[in-house]
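Re: [ENG-882] Designed sequences occasionally contain unexpected residues at chain ends

Forwarding the minimal case from QA. Structure tokens:
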């Protein structure tokens, strides 16, 4: 604080010198948030559970199509973002209400020659915009030609907050 700042404070009726942090105590409280602002969470964070409930596959030559039913098991609406599996990513971009389930075609491509891809990642966000990732273990069956087909997905806990 310079000499002129001290003179300015004295002229306005304030103390010449203030201790660091003292000005924070004197600040007026801020107005309460309006309805247009994001809600403030209270209590522990609730992680919404969204999972692949069932899956089916179809083969055509060396091609495989995987269809899944994804269910929202949480108390709020969620927005599905994308699913990553077998080295590819598919944008889902849809909403699921609490308890709602919907069918999605999540893969259409060559059947894998190995089981190196063990995890499918399902990305979604809750109503506050917080992102989560539900990892699912991929189960395979081997076909007579040595390729593999996806038979099931198993949710792995805990769900990641990303």
């Amino acid at each position: 604080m310079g000499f002129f700042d001290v003179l300015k404070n004295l002229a306005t009726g304030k103390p010449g010198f203030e201790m660091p942090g003292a000005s924070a105590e004197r600040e007026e409280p801020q107005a309460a948030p309006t309805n247009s602002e994001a809600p403030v969470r209270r209590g522990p964070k609730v992680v919404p559970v969204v999972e692949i409930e069932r899956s089916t596959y179809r083969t055509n030559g060396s091609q495989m199509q995987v269809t899944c039913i994804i269910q929202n098991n949480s108390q709020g609406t969620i927005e599905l973002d994308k699913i990553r599996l077998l080295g590819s990513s598919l944008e889902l971009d849809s909403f699921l209400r609490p308890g709602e389930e919907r069918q999605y075609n999540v893969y259409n491509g060559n059947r894998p020659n190995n089981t190196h891809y063990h995890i499918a990642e399902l990305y979604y966000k809750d109503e506050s915009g917080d992102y989560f990732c539900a990892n699912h273990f991929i189960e395979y069956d081997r076909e007579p030609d040595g390729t593999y087909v996806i038979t099931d997905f198993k949710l792995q806990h805990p769900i990641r907050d990303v």
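QA comment: On inspection the terminal residues look reasonable. The first strand starts at residue 50 and ends at 60. Proposing we downgrade this to a documentation issue.
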